[in-house]
Design goal:
55% helix, single chain, mainly alpha
Length: 85
Amino acid sequence: MAKEAELNFEGAMERLEEIVRELEHGDVPLEKAIDLFQQGMKLSQLCGSKLEQVERKIEMITEMDGELRKKPFGARLEGDGDESL
């Protein structure tokens, strides 16, 4: 498996689905099942983290004075540096 940090969301979800299918099949030795479960938990956390990052970025797009404005993550909406969409 590629390192979790190198996986994009789609790749992590695909690998997680493979792990779930393998575990659901039921004929996995206990040691391998534990290893797969641990991998699955890490992938699940990675996906959750990536979704949270996307959510924060989406929240940065707000409606202001009747216009949609985009601001970089962590920036304040006040000021002239906002980019109108």
